[in-house]
Amino acid sequence: MSTSTDILTGGQPTEEHLTLAKSNGVKVVVNLRTAAEEKDYATEPKKVEELGMKYVHIPIDSKTGEGLNEENAKKLATLLAEKPAIIHCGSGQRVGALFALKAFYVDGATPDVALQTGKDNGLSKPELEKIVVDIMAKKKG
Q: In this structure, what DSSP letter does residue 88 have?
C-alpha cells in the first residue's frame, strides 16, 4: 500500500489491515474490484461495517476500463473528503487510473499531469494507461 497523510492506496487489504486501519482512524474503504473478483474480497464489506467504517464499492474493469469515467472520478473526490480513507483494487492499478481521472476531471489537471498523478498512485500497466489517455482525449476533443 502507498500512503499519504490521510489516504492509503494499493492492492487488496487483509482483515488485519482493515483492523489496523480502523485503529488509525480510517473512516471509509473504497473497493474498485469487480463482481467477478468477489471471491477475493467476499468478507470485506461485512468486516468494514463491523469495524464501523463506511464501505463503498465502485467497480472498475481493469481490462476494458468500464467504470473509469467522470462520474466515478467525482465520486472518488467526494469520498476523499471523508479521509482518512483506503482506496484499493487488486494490485493498485485501477486506483492509479481513477486518481488520474480525478486529477483531470475534478482538479483541472492537464492530461500529462493527470497521467503522472495516476502513476504516482499505482498506475503502471501500459494497457490501462492507454485507456486513461483515450478517455481524457475524448473529453478534450
A: E
Q: What is the pLDDT of residues 40-55, one digit of tens each?
A: 888 999 999 999 999 9
Residue 35, class by beta-carbon neighbours within 10 Å (0-12 exposed, 13-18 middle, 19+ buried)? exposed
Placement of cell 482493515 in the chain: 18
In 49-141, which ranges are E strands? 54-57, 85-88
Given the candidates 1.10.3290.10, 3.90.190.10, 3.40.640.10, 3.40.50.720, the CATH classification of the domain at 2-140 is 3.90.190.10
Q: How far apart are CA 69 and CA 97, in angstroms?
A: 10
Cα 120–chain centre separation: 13
